[in-house]
Structure formats: C-alpha cells, structure tokens
Structures
1.
Amino acid sequence: MESSLIQLLVLAGIAVFLILKLRAVLGTREGFEKPPVPVEAALPAKRGKFQVIEGTPDPDITDHAPEGSDSAKALAAMKAAEPTFGVGEFLRGARGAYEMILMAFERGDLDSIRPFLADEVEATFAQAINAREQAGLTTEAKFLGISDLGLAEAEYDAVTKSAEITVRFTGELTSVTRNKAGEVVEGSPTEVKRQRDVWVFSRRMGVQDPNWQLVATGE
C-alpha cells in the first residue's frame, strides 16, 4: 500500500514538472484565440495577371491612347510622377464628374461644384446662369447616362508636374427651358437629348489634393 502511494506521488511530481516546463515554452492561453492561418494566406500574394514589366506596354495606358503616341508618353510620365495614378480610374472619376457638374449647371448651383472648376470656367458658368435668371428662364433637366466617353489627348509638363487630360463625352438627358409664364421655349421634358462635350481636366501630380479641376470646355 505504501509503495503504491509513493509511486502515485512520484508520478504526480513528474506531471507537475512537465506542466511547468510546457508553460515556460508555450506560454499560457487566455480568452479568445485567433483561428489558425490557412496555408494559402501565409504564402506571398500572387502577382496580378496584367502586371506591367519594364519595357512592355502598359494596358492601363494603351487601352486609352495609341502606343508610342504623345498622349501615351504623357500618361506614362504622369504615372511615373505619381505611381498611384491610373488612367482607367481617372476616366471613371471623369464620368461621375461630368454628371455632377452638368446637372449642377442646369440647376444653377455653382456652390456644390466650385472646388472642381478653374476660375475661368466658373466665371463662364456664372455668366450663363445669371443671363438665364435675368431673362426669367428656368431649366429642368434629368440625366439619363453617358453613351460614349473617351480620352482625346493628354499632356504633361515635367517641370511644373502639371497634367492635362482631354475627355470626350456624349451625355444623354432630357432638358426643358421655360419662361416666366411656364411656357416651353427650348427642349422637351420627354425627348432625349444627346449632348457632346469635350472637357479638359488639370491637376498637379504628386500633391495631396486628389481632385482634378475642369479648366476648359468645348464641343
């Protein structure tokens, strides 16, 4: 009986010793633990399918400007000056800016778009809005979408880091202008109108402000 008791005490002592050693090596676990990381997550991320290799065409540029053209070279210089710049992303932003600026002009609301307009463009817009108001005319417009959008030209000044990108738009909207008596003097509330515009956006590359400004408009 005594020998059995001694054996149990010896085994218990060995168990306590092993537990203390394990704690010293592994540490103690408390609370919720993070789930194990899958093997795939521990591996380096796979490189994008369309990664640009030095000396090869950049599809982000050649999708919008002919390879080797002055516009393509300008776009490449913009990306070199600001690696986070993307031509496709810029054009998606231009699409949204076109609707926002066009509709604000139709409403006569320059305050909401002033940060996106160069001084000369703002002055031209303000003059047209004031003339419309003085004539007692009001405009109602509804934007339906953009049927065509494309990069027309790109220019870059490496000294000032100033970039200019010209974009062609074909917007679809309904627009009607009424006089003080409510009579229609131009347009139609139901007829879809196609409006073609050529806008020039400008920005200094590498600065913190990401906003491009509209610096010129045309047809």
Note: The beta strands are 138-157, 162-178, 184-204, 213-218.
2.
Amino acid sequence: MARIQRAELADRALVPSGARTRRDAAARTVLEAVALGFLSAGDKHFHTVRCRDTLGRALWAFTPPVEA
C-alpha cells in the first residue's frame, strides 16, 4: 500500500493523501482501520477522516461508529 504522503486538518476532518485509487481494496481496509484508530482517540479537533489521492480527489470518508 502506498504511504500517506501528506495529512492535514480541514473543516474538522483529518485528511491523509497518498498515491492510491478508489479500487484499491487493501488500501481502503488499512485506511479504514487507521481512521477508526484516530477517531477512537476522541480528539475534538476532527470528527471524520477523509482520504484523498495525490491529486486531491476524494476517495473515502470514515466517521466514528455509532455507539448503541
């Protein structure tokens, strides 16, 4: 899987960017786990993780799971 080349905070979202595509199932699985790890920390600076490719195109967005 391609490494995260850049990460920024924008509109209360953590936005990691890297050289991957929407069809990359392995990258999506790994980034979802990473996103849920970040979100589980409860940092008030962001409430979602939005992954982008190196051209800034949106790939996936992850939010914390809803607690029952």
Note: The two ends are 33 Å apart (CA to CA).
3.
Amino acid sequence: MKKILSLFSALVLVLSSCSSDDSKESSVFVKKIIEVDKNGNSFTTDFTYDGTRKDRETVKNNNTGETYYMDYSYNREGMIASVLKSTTDGQALVLTELTYNDVSLKTILQTEFINGKKNIKKTYYSTGIRFGNETVTYKTVDVDEDNNAETNPVQGRLTLEDGKIVKDEIIGAQATTIVYEYDTANNPFKNVKGVEALLGNFDLGYSNFNKVKETSTTSSDLPKINSSTYSYDGKNFPTGAKHFDKDGNIKGSTQYFY
C-alpha cells in the first residue's frame, strides 16, 4: 500500500511539474526584437498585446530614427482581421486584410499606398485547412483600384507537414520551388492568438516554428540558400539568431526579448 501511495505521489508531482512548466511556457510573449542586417543597419521592434492578441508593433530604424506602426484588429472569432502599417503621423502605408472560412485562412488582400495611388494584390487559398499534413493551393492576382479587375494570376501550392509549411511551389512565368526546414523549438509568436492560421506568411512575422533553412530553386538559376542558427532560453524560446547565405557569410542577426 505504501509503495502504491508513493508511486501515486510521485505521479502527482510529475503531472504538477509538467502543468507548471506548460503554464510558464504559455505565458511567454516576445516584447522586443532587435535586427541587424549585413550592412550594420539596426532595427528595433517593440510589441504590445491585448491579452493574447497582438495590439501594436512599433518599428524603429535605429540608424535614421524613422519609425512606423503595425496595428492589429480582430474578428469576432478572435482571428487577425487586419494589419495596418502607418507612419507615426497617421499616414497609411500598407493595409493587409484577412478573411477566413471558419478558422481556415481564405483570402489576404494587401493594399500598398504609393503617392496617392494603390497597389493592390489579393491571394485566394483553398478552404478546409486544418493544419495537419496536407496540400493547400493558392492564387495571387493584381487588383485594379478603379474597377476591381483581377489580372496577372500567379498560382501556387503549399505542402504542410505537422502544421508547418515545408514546400512552396510557385507556378508563374518562371517556376519556383522553395523548401523550408525548421527546428523543434518554440517560435517567439507561439502564444499569439491567430498565428496558427496564417499559413507561414513570413511577411507578417509568423510561423509555427523557427525557420533554420530556406532553399529557393528556379528553372533557370542555381539554388539560393539562406540559413539561421539559434540560441534558446530555458523554456526553449529563441533568444538570438544568426543568419547566413549559401557560402556561410553572415547576413545579419536577431535578438529576442520576452
């Protein structure tokens, strides 16, 4: 009986410890990122949150002092509905609007404001995405700001494994295949609401895992390879990264603060 109680107590202790670790991990949100490119230009991004939702990013060029905002809005289901990039005096630069089929990404409409004109692109995704092992097709078009006519379609196919994109096949004037490799650690944005639905849209700063290698191959060129190495904290979140080209030359670095 004593042995059974001892085993039970040990099990309770282990489960309690795991629960505590999970709780600590789920409370981690990146507060600041500092990036340095190969030319020594430095950029600082500060993040604010509303609960588990990202509220605003403040991005500053530390060399020039130029600053812009990225403001987030959400739909009723708590998914990211829009991201507005603007100057500190309120001038809109880029508006990204997202729609969903249930919790699956359906469309992304991106409007860039340039000298009083709009450069508009829209991407359609196949529906029924459930973040497992699957193939997702998409089509990106240019949209006329006056009559909404869609032109210059570029089609593609995403291959997902365990919820992460491992291949992006772009079918256009020149076919391109991009292969992604990841670590198994926590992405800095892991706990941000809506991240898992964004299908690796890296221009929004999201992926489920940390990308360690990207190999881009076209039908008429040699492969372009970029890679990254990371250092991690005790909760397995990255604290720093170094980025390299195909020859191993450093292209930049990133620091993460929580």
Note: The mean pLDDT is 88.
